[in-house]
Automatic annotation (TrEMBL):
Domain DUF6795: 36-134
GO molecular function, one term: carboxypeptidase activity
Protein name, UniProt field: Carboxypeptidase regulatory-like domain-containing protein
Species assigned in the record: Jejubacter calystegiae
Claim: Membrane is one of the keywords in the record: no
Keywords from the UniProt entry: Carboxypeptidase, Hydrolase, Protease
Pfam families on file: DUF6795
Keyword Glycoprotein: no
InterPro entries, per database record: DUF6795, Ig-like_fold
Highest rank taxon of the organism: Bacteria
């Protein structure tokens, strides 16, 4: 009887330990967008002093202005997360580069991704954009939206 009580106690301890480990959290750090570098051009010429905004799900997270060569850099803020593995862990990441040109606010580039809890960006993820403000005169239909910025 003494051995049975010890065995039941050991099993209870192991079960409690396994439950604690399986429900314990994991802390990790990531970004909702990559680091973004780009240049803004108008008819192929760099445009200085253009406000450029990084948004994350329609929330402004970073703002900068182009330099004399039309260049800009947007470094997203990193975020710490606590993962507790209970229930669905799906994650939507949607970011955009917004360009202010006079009274107009233009969406230069946008990207979305849907994935698991670890589907964010790392500190090494980068994207380079070339943004042309002048309208294209190619064969695109008037209803077809061509992004101002293209990955380079």
């Amino acid at each position: 009887m003494h051995h049975t009580a010890l065995r039941n106690g050991a099993l209870s301890t192991i079960a409690a330990l396994l439950l604690t480990v399986s429900l314990s959290g994991c802390v990790f750090h990531d970004y909702n967008s990559p680091h973004i570098e780009g240049v803004i051009l108008n008819q192929g010429q760099p445009v200085a002093d253009v406000p450029v905004i990084l948004t994350n799900v329609d929330k402004q997270v970073r703002t900068t202005t182009t330099d004399s060569l039309g260049r800009f850099t947007l470094t997203p803020p990193g975020e710490w997360h606590l993962l507790i593995p209970i229930g669905p862990q799906d994650r939507l990441s949607r970011w955009a580069v917004i360009i202010e040109q006079g009274q107009k606010t233009l969406t230069g580039y946008t990207e979305s991704r849907f994935g698991g809890v670890f589907s964010g960006y790392s500190g090494r993820d980068r994207i380079r954009l070339i943004c042309e403000l002048s309208p294209k005169s190619d064969n695109a239909s008037p209803t077809e939206k061509v992004p101002l910025c293209q990955p380079h």
